[in-house]
Amino acid sequence: MRVCEIFESLQGEGALAGRPMLFVRLSGCNLACPWCDTPYAQEGGRDMSVGEIARLIAASRLRYVCWTGGEPLLQAGELQAVATKTADKRHCLETNATLPVPAGVFYHVTASPKSLATAPPPADAYKFVIGAQTAYDAEGVRSYAQRYGLPPDKVFLQPQCTEAEEALEGSRRLWDICVREGFSLSPRLHTLLFGNTRGI
Ligand code: SF4
Question: Are 138 and 170 in contact (CB under 8 A)?
């Protein structure tokens, strides 16, 4: 598998924010979003075998594994093989919602659509990143959620940001629509606390 980085941290975003997890960030993405906060994961990385990654996961004392990227489902077959070898862990997925999610593999799936042009896939949570550069705004997400009948409590709005002040400012802007629509405000705990630091 092409791996960008593996590290233990706290989940900073979405429905599981604050939860300790082992992050497995895979390399490669099928999109090229101008606001991407992990451009270093779009290419490169190092090769690791399914067995090597499974051993690292098994050795972690943390119960939760977060598969992220890039787009981790570009390597869905091998990812599934690792998950099968480490089935005692709770495998969570962060996906850009462009590829089918294999059934029965993940404890929690967060779909983060980068465009509102297609229907959302089945997921446990829908995370929409909103900022000056993103392809949609909060009103667009509201119409999209209504059109596809997304339960409001599965919808998370998150400010596009790489620095703490941006995270705070963006969160303030999203506050009212979250209250009005019953959406959740997704924090960026790692950005608020450590800014644009990699590996946290
Ligand atoms: S889908 Fe995610 S990782 Fe890929 S380019 Fe967009 S923001 Fe970056």
Answer: no
